[in-house]
Amino acid sequence: MKISIKNVGAIRDADIELGDVTVLYGRNGTGRSTFAKLLDTIVNGQGDEKAMKAAVDSLPTNNLDPKEPLEIKLAPRTGGKVTLRQGGKTAPDLSCLKGFAQRAVFIDDEVLALCGLIGPETDLHGISVSERTLRTLELVQKSFDAKGLSTENEDPEEAQVRENLRRICRGRLVPGTKELRFADEEGSPSERIRSAGAGLRLFLLLQQLIFSGAVGRNDVLILDSPESSMHPDWQVRLAEVIILILESIGIRVIVISQSPYLIGAIEAYSVRWDVEDYITYAFARRGKQGVEIEDVTGDVAEIYDDLAGAFDMIQKAKSGKKIK
Q1: What is the C-alpha separation between 206 and 202, in angstroms, rounded?
Q2: What is the pLDDT of residues 132-179, one digit of tens each?
Q3: SS3 of 280, please?
Q4: Helix crossing, 260-272 with 301-318: angle to 10°?
Q5: Quick one: which of 2, 98, 104, 132 could link to 75 by a disulfide (CB 3.0–4.6 Å)?
Q6: Which alpha helices (H) appear in the chain, and where do they start and end?
Q7: Which of 279, 293, 297, 281 is nearest to 21 (CA)?
Q8: What is the DSSP code (8-state) at residue 105?
Q9: Strand, helix or coil at 7?
Q10: Which pLDDT score is estimated for 187?
Q11: Phi, psi of 29, deg, nearest 5
């Protein structure tokens, strides 16, 4: 699906062909999370025109020139076009968006911080969180009632996903009365998931959502800065999981990242599993007129060159040179 965005928050202009896996890189303050949240709003609002219109009207206009009209254009591969304008009419038929995804599942630091509070008896509506966080927490809560994916006739890629997650998690999530707990493979007494680090929580959530069947084909996972609190080794493992769940289950993924390890590993595994043509890379850059998000799939080196700037700063610091 091609998405064009004008004048949303810090984003002045964005023009991207969303891939089955889309990687968005940018420095701090370049609208990366705004882009991710906007996609979540669009995908999850497609079945409710009134809710979609209200969501679009509530979006912040361009920070530098509030008079500029907000506009979002969507052109799914399946055909049809949708234009959303602030204060205007939402297109009456949003069904063409289902060719990209029928549901978005958003995971960020807020979800990872609160996931330990989930239990069968937890009233999630009593927690003060955003709608997108609430949707994900409710999905996790309901996932424990799901039948789960069968391991019979499991294809090699799906088996590899299961093994990768098992190797890292070395256990699974189990619902306590009022909170999620972690049960390890050794059969030790379960522990509070709140005591685990954010990196392990992410892998445990992915394991639970994917293999319970709660997230599947025609869903899109939106991972906002998943490398947070995660060692580079695990970032490489995460990249392989991302590619394999696309290949074996058909789950699309949007990754917002500043990590050379995660971005580089996604590129490497996409080549290994022969899906590089389905991956899109985008670069968010701030200019005088606001942020522009550019598709750099044909020249991913631009991202690595920008990341290399930090190493240049280190070398200057070592040699006593002034850092601008």
Answers
A1: 6
A2: 898 999 999 889 887 777 667 778 888 888 888 999 999 988 888 778
A3: strand
A4: 140
A5: 2
A6: 32-44, 49-58, 109-114, 131-143, 156-169, 198-211, 232-249, 260-272, 301-318
A7: 279
A8: E
A9: strand
A10: 75
A11: 80, 25
Under DSSP, the state recorded for 146 is S
Which residue is listed with tokens 């968005």? 24
Structure tokens at 272: 């290994």
- Short-list 213, 218, 230, CA closest to 265: 230
Q: Are the C-beta atoms of residues 227 and 261 closer than 8 Å to each other? A: yes
Q: How many CB atoms lie within 10 A of CB 155?
A: 11
**Tokens, residue 77:** 């591969």
Contact (Cβ atoms closer than 8 angstroms) between residue 24 and residue 54: no
- Whole-number Å distance between alpha carbons of 204 and 219: 18
Task: Sort strands 21-26 and 279-287 into parallel, antiparallel or unpaired.
Answer: parallel
Question: Residue 34: CB partners within 8 Å, gap ≥ 6?
Answer: 8, 9, 10, 11
Pairing type for strands 252-256 and 219-224 reads parallel
Residue 166, both tokens:
């098992």
The token pair at 223 is 């991972």
Place of tokens 């039948």: 147
Residue carrying the six token digits 């809560």: 141
pLDDT tens per residue, range 176-216:
877 888 888 887 767 888 788 889 999 999 999 999 999 99
